[in-house]
Amino acid sequence: MTRDGSEPRAVAAQAAQAVLDRGRALDTVLPALLEGLGDSRDRSLARRLASGALRDWPALDWLVGALVDKPLKGRNRQLHFLLAVALHELRDGREPDHAIVHAAVAAARCLRGQRLTGLVNGVLRAFGRRRGELLASLPDTPVLRFGYPGWLIKRVESDYGDAAPGILAAGNEPPPLWLRVNRRRIARDDYRELLERAGIEADAPAGFPDALRLAERAAISALPGFEDGLVSVQDGAAQFAADYLDLRDGQRVLDACAAPGGKTAHILERRDVGLTALDIDGERLSRVGNGLERLGLDARLVAGDAARPDDWWDGKRFDRILVDAPCSATGVIRRHPDIRWLRRDEDIDRLAALQGTILDALWPLLEPGGILVYATCSLLRVENDEQARAFLERHADARGIDNTDMPGRPARPGRQILPGEHGCDGFYYFAARRLPE
Ligand SMILES: C[S@@+](CC[C@H](N)C(=O)[O-])C[C@H]1O[C@@H](n2cnc3c(N)ncnc32)[C@H](O)[C@@H]1O
């Protein structure tokens, strides 16, 4: 840990600024920034503070605005973010106030030199003195209350009514770490024992045959046998895809939006199938190859557009097709707090149209009697139930498969899993069988 705690705070401020001012994804900017931090505790603190500031951005932004005499502009805008990170820490209360102020002042020195350290010190001390009054005067708007942009709050309210506040709040809870055990290599209970021996506590939730859920977050490097392919990190809800596909050995399977390959690998761990992993993004597709190599699995990797099968399809139909579609990712906001600030309202209808185009382009590639599974990590009905309903209306030879044979699932095609349900991310699944010709 750095002696003055400055570096993780400076990194958190830079990461938050990259997301909010430059529209960069946190997962893209953070790794490079974290490289400069030698200590793993500093890295996890920087990650926690950046995520926390993004979750609570509207209130923090308002507080900084209320505390500074004039807006911090140009290169000094970095300090606006640093102050927001420090205010988040002061509200969170995990460290004594004086330690937080001291670290923030040192971070200001790191970022902008000695000149504005007095301002940072003064603002944070003023917050300490006026805390009650300032927090009481925070505007009581949905944006500040929930920490989401207004357009997204409106969409969730319109889709879910009275349940919306709980759903939005669940998106602000830090997620648990889920693992998927590679049962080709080790039984789930045996891997759980390995974890226990390494001092990592996990439970094996019912209804998730390959999953373990950790009681506390752990570094990947601490997971026994990770490099040897015993285990992968994958949310519980993402593990339903393999169930919905209802796989048999020997089938031809298309994973149409495959990268980075979590579901590809799960399918291959489950059954001996001939799998084509397609993705439009060649660079992301290479991550599928790396993951499969670690797990001792193999697939045909194809870089191509799922909406244009004529460019890559060999003309042999598939028994199973998984469309894990590009989506708003509004179901995984608790894991990626930047998503709410990076997405725009107008993206949603564009994504829904693309999902429909991909589904229509791939449907003829399915063998009669075969199953197509459509998945999103979205909460929004326009990408989920409405997408499935419109698909069934367009394709007379498609029958939605209901969920009755899936334990605890309602008897209708399509299932929305809400964030936090069974400790999972928000996900949606819809399965359809192609009727014989
Ligand atoms: C939700 S992610 C898939 C996650 C992956 N199935 C997994 O479990 O790890 C969606 C993927 O769709 C890809 N994609 C977007 N548009 C596509 C298209 N038109 N054709 C094929 N892939 C596409 C993106 O590059 C991205 O990798």
Automatic annotation (TrEMBL):
Belongs to the class I-like SAM-binding methyltransferase superfamily. RsmB/NOP family. Residues 167-435 form the SAM-dependent MTase RsmB/NOP-type domain. It holds the Pfam family RsmF-B_ferredox. NCBIfam families: PRK10901.1, rsmB. It is an enzyme of class 2 (transferase). This is 16S rRNA (cytosine(967)-C(5))-methyltransferase. Its EC number is 2.1.1.176. It is found in: Cytoplasm. It comes from Wenzhouxiangella sediminis.
